[in-house]
């Protein structure tokens, strides 16, 4: 529930992460389940924000700006999945809510949006749960000390994979 609220209307920077690590350190057998539950809650909360932005645009009858039509829209049409995936891996207190809002306003495909979020949030929260299992009660201190570096490495790996995939697909066509 806390991840749903954090990804939708309220902000709980570090609290949901620390709680996940704490729960996983207390019950190792349920750690994977805790990580996946956190991911699903986060995806549902972000989808609420996405839906509000997508529906709000329809209700307000707002026209697309030249910027949306030219630059951002074209770029997101080709990179929507990887953009949401990388954003979902960002550590707190990164402004994550901006991405579901932008995705909804720019009418990103909801299935691709959810799949990218599910992949990224699952990776992040399962990794946090595993850190809780491995380091126990010291994991919260470890988490705060190393979150940025682990996140940067993870994002770099995802970007390298995405660029490599695009390069391979481009060569095959």
Task: Give the H and E element order.
Answer: HHHHHHH
Mean pLDDT: 80
Please tally the β strands and state the result: 0
Largest sheet: none
* Distance, first to last CA: 45 Å
Q: Can you tell me the overall shape?
A: globular
Helices and strands: which structural class? Answer: mainly alpha
Roughly how much helix do the residues carry, as a percent range? over 70%
Unreliable stretches covering 5 or more consecutive residues: none
| Secondary structure tally, helices | 7
- Percent strand equals under 5%
Q: What is the radius of gyration computed over CA atoms, rounded to a whole number of angstroms? A: 17 Å
Can you describe this structure?
The mean pLDDT is 80. Helix 2 crosses helix 6 (110-135), helix 3 packs antiparallel against helix 6 and helix 4 (66-89) crosses helix 7 (139-172). The chain is globular, with a radius of gyration of 17 Å. The termini are far apart. The protein is mainly α and 173 residues long. The chain has seven helices and no strands. Helix content is 81%, strand content 0%. It has helices at residues 2-7, 15-26, 31-60, 66-89, 98-105, 110-135, 139-172.
Write the layout of secondary structure elements.
Elements: H1 2-7, H2 15-26, H3 31-60, H4 66-89, H5 98-105, H6 110-135, H7 139-172
Helix pairs in contact: 2-3, 2-6, 3-5, 3-6, 4-6, 4-7, 6-7
Short description:
The chain is mostly helical. It is built from 7 helices and no strands.
